[in-house]
Amino acid sequence: MTRRIGVLTGGGDCAGLNSAVKWVTKTATDPHLTAYRGEAMEVIGLREGWKSLVSVNPEDPDSVARWTMPLDELVVRTWDRQGGTVLGSSRTNPFNPKDDRSAQCLANIAGLDLHALVAIGGEDTLSVAYKLNNLGQKVVGIPKTIDRDLNATDYTLGYDTALNVITEEVDRLRTTAGSHSRLFVVEVMGRHAGWLALEGGEAAGAHVILIPEYDFEVAKVAELLERRRRAGVRYDIVVVSEGARIRGQGELYLSDKEDGFGHKVLGGIGEYLAKQLEAATGYETRHVVLSHIQRGGQPSARDRLMGRYFGIAAVDLILEEDFGRMVSFRNGQITSVSLKQAIEKLYLIDVDTLYDPLRYNGRRSSMLPRSPRAE
Ligand code: F6P
């Protein structure tokens, strides 16, 4: 008997997705493993995330060709070196309360004869996986998000490549900032969690780091920068999360349009803050929005490796018939957790242990139990 596995990538794309799809495919279809298990598997790539499963007509060959892609070792051979997702992605939510297409989705999974699904995504994609699993569909998840805000895993695909982009781009900005004695505000991604700003800012040596988990004051940022200039430095780099808030104010959005999961597109805090800081300090200021550049480019070694390990583990879960779970990296080991645990809350920065609210930066002690509080 040959079992058909569907694999999809949902939500924002990032580096490492193709590696995960490659290793799901290679592990599922490996001839030696097939002989050893006594069970053959076939892998079908589902195009554009959940959109494939609400759009495909399993009776129509053209529609099947449009929304699915048979995968084998030869097809995926070179994928792990490529950024983005060859399968494509979308923010389609089959359980969107404004347009519920979950029944269609379930009917199409049956119509395509899919024994199990591998859903590669963040909290939104995996919340759909969780709901489908509760409705009896066999699903396993693989964690990805450059924001790294998924619970119950120490790694999410795309994060390391994005951190490297931030570090490289800030390095580039340093020379021009220094040449012109300017202040640069660099806006990075991070909707709810400031991991990219904090660790990207730490890796790049940013002078001020602003995160969604701690509301900041413009006057305090200005004071920190002025202190640096008085000490003799010529330029400053401020890294700010797109989701960071000025105390007493809300997040800034690029538009009011919502996706299928009810999210609006964040953006604008970098530009807004740059103007405020220029007014407060008098320093010539520029802002840079790294935006989707953080999601692009070739995957780092870590993203290729984690994609590989997660892809292999997802097939292990399917063989064990251990559904409703997400593969996870915890305490240096590949393991799995329930999808429920993965999506029940977001993994945010613990300000008390990792952030220094006095310096608006990473913490400068590792062993002491708490950071000094600003207030
Ligand atoms: O997937 C996470 C993320 O990269 C967030 O950091 C960001 O807010 C959002 O996606 C941007 O989404 P879009 O690609 O739809 O503009």
Could you explain how this protein is built, in words?
- The chain has 375 residues and is α/β, with parallel strands linked by helices.
- The chain folds into two domains: 2-157 and 299-343, Rossmann fold (3-Layer(aba) Sandwich), CATH 3.40.50; 160-296 and 350-362, Phosphofructokinase domain (Rossmann fold), CATH 3.40.50.
- Helices cover 38% and strands 20% of the residues.
- The protein has a seven-stranded mixed β-sheet with strand order 3-2-1-4-5-12-13, sandwiched between helices.
- Helix 7 (159-180) packs across helix 8 (195-204) and helix 9 crosses helix 10.
- Bound molecules: 6-O-phosphono-beta-D-fructofuranose.
- 6-O-phosphono-beta-D-fructofuranose is lined by residues 11-12, 122, 145-147, 189-191, 242, 265-266, 295.
- The site of 6-O-phosphono-beta-D-fructofuranose has 13 residues, from strand 10.
Search tags:
binds 6-O-phosphono-beta-D-fructofuranose, 38% helix, Rossmann fold, 13 helices, elongated, 2 domains, alpha/beta, 375 residues, 4-stranded parallel β-sheet
CATH C-level name of the largest domain: Alpha Beta
Bound molecules: 6-O-phosphono-beta-D-fructofuranose
> Structural class of the secondary structure composition?
alpha/beta
- Number of H- or I-type helical stretches: 13
For the record, the count of structural domains works out to: 2
Give the beta-strand count. Answer: 15
Terminal CA distance = 65 Å
> Measured on Cα atoms, how large is the radius of gyration?
22 Å
CATH topology of the largest domain: Rossmann fold
Largest sheet: 7 strands, mixed
Low-confidence stretches: none
Average pLDDT taken over every residue: 96
CATH architecture tag of the largest domain: 3-Layer(aba) Sandwich
Overall 3D form: elongated
